[in-house]
């Protein structure tokens, strides 16, 4: 008989105690749960991601919200649009008027006077050139003095300078007249007037002042994501992205994107080389060219709407991902864009 059992038999009460069956069952369940958890963490795959908030914007800078400015100073005469109006390219938006109501008439009268002066100078020059040729011919024949020939030459040069001055004045007046045609501000392309930034009629505005905010039509959308500097080195152009748009119902599983619902596929277009003031990096994401489901219509996901994106990285065991998160390591990265191997490093 074992030594332990011989000594226990001296204690009748202790010897009569038996481990309850329920405790054995609970102990077996705990051991099985721990073993299952270890196997689960060791063999269940997990897709590493780096996520960040974002906002919907236009891919082409020319398609983003832009300001329409007044090209000349003037007084607001008439508005042709209001907030929310849809315009076509060339449609009038605003008409300005000069403080002088008779400016156009005076410019037309000035132009006629300048044209007459130019024509008179041209006719006088033509006559002077004929006189110069005749005087030169007489001078060579000895019938005219050198002084007459030189005076004729001086007169031709003087009239040429007058003609050039008249043409320059006419050009300046034409420029001024063309500027008056810019009192009518037109839409640069098809789009929507978001907001009128100038005042009511009779309000004076200066050249370069913003009169309206404009959103072009048919803009290709993109998402600006902001990624933490710890993970941005692993994000490269062409990396797949899972996007969740504001107001769009979705169920997102970061580590198992294949079972997520309501998210949309994207692709990294570019990564900014410098950080934002808050230390995060901007990542521009466009719609994946081979996406099975296109992004929601622009009426549901508008410009300026918020979004959240998960850049998909490597597939690793779930236990490794938990260990990485607890140690605050960057995601595992084994294959670069150029096919070079890279080892994860701790920060």
UniProtKB/TrEMBL annotation:
Sequence intervals crossing the membrane: 21-47
Note the coiled coil stretches, chain numbering.
149-176
Which terms are listed as keywords in the entry? Coiled coil, Membrane, Transmembrane, Transmembrane helix
- Which Gene3D superfamilies would you find in this protein's record? 2.40.50.100, Helix hairpin bin
InterPro entries, alphabetically?
MFP
Entry protein name: Efflux RND transporter periplasmic adaptor subunit
Give the originating organism.
Parvularcula lutaonensis
């Amino acid at each position: 008989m074992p030594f332990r059992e011989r000594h226990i038999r001296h204690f009748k009460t202790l010897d009569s105690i038996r481990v309850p069956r329920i405790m054995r069952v609970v102990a077996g369940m705990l051991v099985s749960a721990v073993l299952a958890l270890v196997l689960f963490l060791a063999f269940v795959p997990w897709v590493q991601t780096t996520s960040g908030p974002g906002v919907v914007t236009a891919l082409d800078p020319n398609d983003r919200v832009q300001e329409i400015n007044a090209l000349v100073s003037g007084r607001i005469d008439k508005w042709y649009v209001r907030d929310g109006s849809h315009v076509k390219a060339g449609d009038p938006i605003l008409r300005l008027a000069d403080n002088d109501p008779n400016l156009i008439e005076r410019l037309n009268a000035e132009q006629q006077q300048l044209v007459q002066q130019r024509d008179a100078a041209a006719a006088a020059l033509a006559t002077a050139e004929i006189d110069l040729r005749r005087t030169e011919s007489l001078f060579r024949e000895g019938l005219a003095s050198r002084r007459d020939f030189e005076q004729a030459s001086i007169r031709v040069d003087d009239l040429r300078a007058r003609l050039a001055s008249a043409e320059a004045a006419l050009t300046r007046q034409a420029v001024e007249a063309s500027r008056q045609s810019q009192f009518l501000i037109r839409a640069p392309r098809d789009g929507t007037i978001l907001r009128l930034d100038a005042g009511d009629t009779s309000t004076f505005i200066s050249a370069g002042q913003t009169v309206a905010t404009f959103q072009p039509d048919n803009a290709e959308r993109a998402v600006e994501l902001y990624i933490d500097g710890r993970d941005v080195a692993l994000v490269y152009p062409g990396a797949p992205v899972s996007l969740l748009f504001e107001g769009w119902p979705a169920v997102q599983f970061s580590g198992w994107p294949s079972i997520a619902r309501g998210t949309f596929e994207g692709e990294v277009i570019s990564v900014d080389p410098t950080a934002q003031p808050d230390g995060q990096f901007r990542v521009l994401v466009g719609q994946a060219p081979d996406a099975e489901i296109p992004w929601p219509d622009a009426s549901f996901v508008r410009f300026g709407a918020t979004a959240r994106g998960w850049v998909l990285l490597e597939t690793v065991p779930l236990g490794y991902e938990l260990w990485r998160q607890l140690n605050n390591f960057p995601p595992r990265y084994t294959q670069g864009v150029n096919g070079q191997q890279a080892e994860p490093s701790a920060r």
